[in-house]
Structures
1.
Amino acid sequence: MCIFCKIIAGEIPSTKVYEDDTVFAFRDINPQAPTHILVVPKAHIPSVAAIDGENSGVVAHIFEVIAQIARQEGLEKGYRVVSNCGEDAGQTVHHLHFHILGGKPLALEMA
Ligand code: 5GP
Ligand code: ZN
């Protein structure tokens, strides 16, 4: 099992922010902003590159969850959603995840 599958299964502790039948969200262990949350599908999808017609429903649902979490976290001044895909993007955990970053003005650099 990958590290995020273990977190979803409760085998590795995490600070849970949200959970439903198909989606899990928890605080990043090494936060890069005052609010740094990871939102993941419970199903193991390796990255954005593996999204297809069979599994994109959960990705649409993840974006509904992201909007809900952002409201709960008081990010009314804005936030960034990031998904690193593959080596050049620096993806370190090969289980699809969306970072929610906020709580301060974020740097504009995208690359
Ligand atoms: P990536 O670099 O793949 O986009 O992001 C992986 C993220 O997972 C990193 O921000 C890292 O801090 C976070 N992370 C890695 N291992 C753990 C863990 O065991 N628990 C939590 N909460 N976050 C983790
Ligand atoms: Zn996994």
2.
Amino acid sequence: MSGCEPSATSPAWAGLEENIQERLLDTATIEAKVSDLAADISRDYQGQDLLLVGVLCGSFVFLADLMRRICLPLQVEFVCLSSYGSGTESSGQIRMLKDLAGPVAGRHILIVEDITDSGRTLKYLVELLRGRGAASVRTCCLLDKPSRREVDFAPDYCGFEIPDAFVVGYGLDFANLYRNLPYVAVLKPEAYEP
Ligand code: IMP
Ligand code: MG
């Protein structure tokens, strides 16, 4: 879905774009990939009782687009996990800030996440939900930085593998900003380095 581009008519909004080093994925490229992922998911979950679990906050834009392209009955819930402070490096410790509303025993769960970095967040959540008796737990992330992996984890569905750079937009943030950029971009290091 298209959004508003930073423009000179809004100085504060255009100021955000000054912190962008390069655009990595434009809106059309993202939309095409989201459609492909949704087609794969629609095929793979035929006849199953699908529960999408979005990981807040970064996944909500991707999840909103993805779920509207999945041609199956499905339910959606959210968890909020935190491994990052306001910086760009993982603390390594996962905290559950908001849990699922209901039980998941017997459910087919697809976790939807914005990006896999160290892999700790998704590995933690997969193990947690398997431990609660889910019938299956798989993962779908828009972006993956495999060179940053610190634990043994690979997403089942992945949009794009990207290099080791800190990216923002299409739901991804730095200090809770940039989520509403309609594209994915590399942030200039001087925007976050002290
Ligand atoms: P992991 O547990 O290290 O895999 O971290 C995953 C989480 O870190 C993601 O859900 C994001 O919230 C955050 N993250 C990792 N890399 C980036 C990035 O380049 N931009 C924005 N957030 C990121
Ligand atoms: Mg996240």
3.
Amino acid sequence: MTAAPQKSPVDLPADASARVDAASQSSRHPAIVILDFGSQYSELIARRVRETEVFSLVMGYTTSAEELRAIAPKGIVLSGGPSSVYETGAPVCDPAIWELGIPVLGVCYGMQLMVQQLGGSVVAAGRAEYGKAPLHVDDPIDLLTNVEQGSTMWMSHGDSVERLPEGFVRLAHTDNTPEAAIADHGRHLYGVQFHPEVVHSTCGMALIRNFVYHICGCEADWTTAAFIEEAVADVRAQVGDKRVLLALSGGVDSSTLAFLLHKAIGDRLTCMFIDQGFMRKGEPEFLVEFFDQRFHINVEYINARERFIGKLHGVTDPEEKRKLIGTEFIRVFEEESKRLGPFDYLAQGTLYPDVIESAGTNIDPKTGERVAVKIKSHHNVGGLPKDLQFKLVEPLRKLFKDEVRKVGRSLGLPEEIVGRHPFPGPGLAIRILGEVTDEKLDILRDADLIVREEIRDAGLYNAIWQAFAVLLPVRSVGVMGDKRTYAFPVVLRCVSSEDGMTADWSRLPYDLLETISNRIVNEVKGVNRVVLDITSKPPGTIEWE
Ligand code: XMP
């Protein structure tokens, strides 16, 4: 995306070795490399390409033509970005990329950069264009095959191409943008001013398919089955006859990892499940029964409830709670791994977005600055310190979350686990505001169960990102029967979201709200009032602490 005047042009330090390392972590080379100019959509482009069953990776825009030659992708996509190409210090790619003979598709900023570097010109548009625009196709060949005349494309730019470089022709325009899609067929260079990757671009996937299959000649070989086969072989080769330890939380990532590793190395996998006492009702029992008894995966159940609740005695500050829980988790993990070990390897559920971010391409689309904002210290099993004396096994590091779910399903994990809502590492402890006590944990567990049951019964579970109860540390007056009550309120928090980064509160039917409220007040001792959180994120966060 290009936006009009930018405060601070992006100029990221290049870390070429980390990038090539990321690309070569893979036993297969990426068919499509996305060079990231700081767009909020770079990851989305990579996901869309993978939806066509073609393997893709995101790399920094400073990746040189030489590095790309070594990786040998079949195509390159230049992402959008928050800068203007004519600003001093705006990010540029290695111009030798145009001479590689590899097809390139520039998206928005990527197209403008292509135009500018090859001798055309880019100017501030008379009128910035944001939102949907009908596309008028002038030449329905290669890139625009099956892209319907008048189909909607998503625009988000303040700059426009004024003059095309030599060799380029127009493929499509919109009412406001004369050069909406362009090509130099001879050099296999293509550009689109719109964003084919966003869901509002109705024929965006057709365009991406045209690029990856017809222009780049990729094959549809990035399938779940192929991934599992490769990952199992890679893990066997890496681990040999050694033992692997996995911290199992019961979430989608660690559960999928457990199944994948069990398939690869069987009994040489040990899953450690630490029950800190902050899980939902029935969850610890369910996990042990499911993994250990039903699927015969070694699970060491560690009951550390007393230790954790003891640490939280008198603690009310949210960050302090999170830190204490995180530190205690690591302590228990270290002690227990010594007791159960020795282990040579530690399995971690690192996913591809973590890898991209740690490569330093995470840029705030609004300011153009690298994002390093810490809003809450997140603790989860993936956050174990690296100085534990283990080598790491991270077979999911090539995958996006939706791909992990597909792998999980394909390995036989039930919907109950694969489709479950996210649950934070510190669990119910950060949904009890103020001091955490056993009494409050019992209250919240009962309320939380009712919320989940009712949301499921209403058929809304899959449509909602998260639905849960929060217990407040205040009391209010109520009346039940003929008796005055003085008890806690429960907050109902239900949100829809794509990725947890932003969220909107869910508009639940009134009847459902009524049922949830009635059941909680009647069935959960200690609660006499239910309130609804109608705050989006931002400005709120999804969790209350
Ligand atoms: P917030 O509250 O920051 O949450 O809007 C965004 C998403 O992250 C989840 N969350 C966590 N997940 N460990 C996790 O694994 C944590 O410490 C943690 N804190 C929040 C939250 O449930 C939501 O899905």
